[in-house]
Specification:
The protein has 218 residues and is α/β, with parallel strands linked by helices. The protein has helices at residues 17-26, 49-56, 76-82, 97-106, 153-166, 183-189, 198-201, 206-217, and strands at residues 4-7, 31-37, 62-68, 86-90, 110-115, 133-137, 171-175, 193-196. The two termini are 13 Å apart. The protein binds D-xylitol-5-phosphate and zinc ion (ZN).
Amino acid sequence: MPIKIAPSILSADFTKLGEEVKRVEAGGAEILHIDVMDGHFVPNMTIGPPVIKALRKVSSMKFDVHLMIERPELYLEEFVNAGADIITVHAEASIHLHRLIQQIKSMGVKAGLALNPATPIEVLTYVLQDLDMVLLMSVNPGFGGQQFIQGVLPKIVALSTIIAQVNPGCLIEVDGGINTDTISLVSRAGADIIVAGAAVFTKPDPVLAIKELLAAAE
Ligand code: DX5
Ligand code: ZN
């Protein structure tokens, strides 16, 4: 399967968010990465269900909602009702991961699990078979525009080997620090979906920026 770029709206111009989203969709993007931060799990705050609900009215892209929040179980229903297609929670944010993943799936959306750069993939051992996606963070979550952490590359390689054996339908998403220099490293390591924020939305032409990223990935 060819890799897909999921543009992250974190670096978009929030004064014209609807237009920014429509623009990348018209340019061929199929997945929109939406970063939700609560100021507790990560030292930054972004947006929540009302903004996702508003975007849902102007876009039919798959909404890939990355929850960087504590107590995610309290808000799942709101995010589903707002229009999420994939909900990704952080392994570090729950002591009841199995239950949390089942809760997401029971709501009829796809379930993703995100791992911070320092979190070993062993945490996936008993839940990988239930997941639709694993998100490997290649920066410490909280901010756009950070530098790619090279140390995550062997983690992507190791995870893709395990996924091929345990749950071949499960996708690997990599998030943070992706640009035309780093994208080939993660695509070669085994990423299926690659998130790009600053490398798309700080560029004068985000659609062209996505095409350049795809070209650099090959
Ligand atoms: C970081 C977020 C990312 C962020 C990536 O905490 O999870 O999705 O938007 O931004 P870039 O691509 O600029 O590193
Ligand atoms: Zn993200």
